Amino acid sequence: MRAYKSKVVSPIRLPDRDERESQLERAGYNVFNLDSDAVFVDLLTDSGTGTMSESQWAAMMSGDEAYAGSASFERLRESVADVMGFERILPAHQGRGAENVLYGALVEDGDYVPNNTHFDTTRAHIANNGGEPVDCPHDDALSGDREFAGDIDVEQVRALADEVGADRIPAVLLTLTNNSLAGQPVSVENVHEARKVADELDATFVVDACRFAENAYFVREREAEFADRSVAEVAREQLSYADALVMSGKKDGLVNVGGFVALRDDPALDDLHAKARERAILYEGFTTYGGMAGRDLEAMAVGLREAVEESYIADRVGQVQRLGDMLAERDVPVQRPTGGHAVYVNAAEFLPEIPAERFPGQALVCELYREGAVRGVELGSFAFPDTDRPELVRLSLPRRTYGADHLEHVAETFEKVAERRDAGEISGLEITDEPEMAELRHFSAELRPVREQETTTAD
Ligand SMILES: *Cc1c(COP(=O)(O)O)cnc(C)c1O
């Protein structure tokens, strides 16, 4: 249950059917092109879309906008030390800025970087520095049998080292929770194992801590050893094995923008710290603000502390589970158990009549908007061309934003889509216009509905 009430109201509206149809058409059947004021329940992403608390808004008034030595930086530094246990931080404008700072200092041409699963921007920054990102999840990660499906398979990391040589692996990464693997959690035992492998390889151990609070909550619920601990204690424990952190404040920082690199105060990391500092100044800003306004540093300092409060995190993860349950009760095929920030729907199973080349995930995303002005995002063959990913649609819940009635609306919208499916009224889609970079296709490509009988064999 929510342990807060609303004080600031942000009106939303459900456009009528005609408007929804014309929005879809104008958007080229790509929901990134919709006007957000024509979206009723927006589950596009949980990144930077949450609601700040009165304490965060109050703290913003004390923002110290000094270029150097800002008191707001000091408050953020203290918060990171208390909540995450790291002494040195380099603020950045958001998570990918922090990735650029750290991975540019760590990764060189010809390197290999293992991770449980690389998030898109992480993959891109490793590759941009000449490295090869290598995903090492367990082969049966999404079988539904693992309590910690997000874990890294350390044997795959050892095998990679045998193949390419330990000296080609400058860092071992671990992403908590495993965003690209349905937001599944990682156990503290696995964090410990990853630390050991990093030591064997003489590699820096980096934790992507974007959803560290959600991960800590799952650990407390599922890992016997931690059943009696507070989420705040588990949060620190799981991070205590890392040399460095990358953080996006837009996730468990409970702010709309911001991020940072954190480094342990260990002489062995002094060189890395010096290199990262240089890059921070070059790309983000002076080391006491790094692309953030003083007021934004203040909001994140408070947000990090709120993220590990029991009442907040239980409600947060519980809401995601409830949405998953509500959809499963209506025979919607969802990934179980649900992760920390989103519900993933298998669109190929939900719309079996639509073949992969007609983008069943994108068809479902369009139907959710058409029937209920609900916005999700496709993460299947439309977003990731030339991979054999499952046809997933992700419904991410913004933090502290929607209530039970909104979840009910989403579930009812799925019922209406199912009715249209059963009546044979849902079409697949074809791309009419796409950008040059295939990796960026789902942000800007345009499509059109196509009835199977219209399709021709010749091009
Ligand atoms: C969001 C995210 C990032 C990048 O953060 P931005 O603030 O979006 O730049 C990196 N890693 C993970 C796991 C994320 O979820």
UniProtKB/TrEMBL annotation:
InterPro entries for this protein: ArAA_b-elim_lyase/Thr_aldolase, Beta-eliminating_lyase, PyrdxlP-dep_Trfase, PyrdxlP-dep_Trfase_major, PyrdxlP-dep_Trfase_small, Tryptophanase_CS
Gene3D superfamilies cross-referenced by the UniProt entry: Aspartate Aminotransferase, domain 1 (3.90.1150.10), Type I PLP-dependent aspartate aminotransferase-like (Major domain) (3.40.640.10)
Keywords, in A-Z order: Lyase, Plasmid, Pyridoxal phosphate
The prosthetic group or cofactor this protein requires is: pyridoxal 5'-phosphate
Asked if the Swiss-Prot or TrEMBL record annotates the protein with the keyword GTP-binding, the reply is no
Matching SUPFAM superfamilies, A to Z? PLP-dependent transferases
For the Aromatic amino acid beta-eliminating lyase/threonine aldolase domain, which residue ranges apply? 42-412
GO process terms (BP): aromatic amino acid metabolic process
Instruction: Enumerate the NCBIfam families for this protein.
Output: PRK13238.1
Query: What's the family?
Result: Belongs to the beta-eliminating lyase family.
Please give the name of this protein: Tryptophanase
Per the UniProt entry, what species is this protein from, by scientific name? Halorussus limi
Q: What is the lineage of its organism?
A: Archaea, Methanobacteriati, Methanobacteriota, Stenosarchaea group, Halobacteria
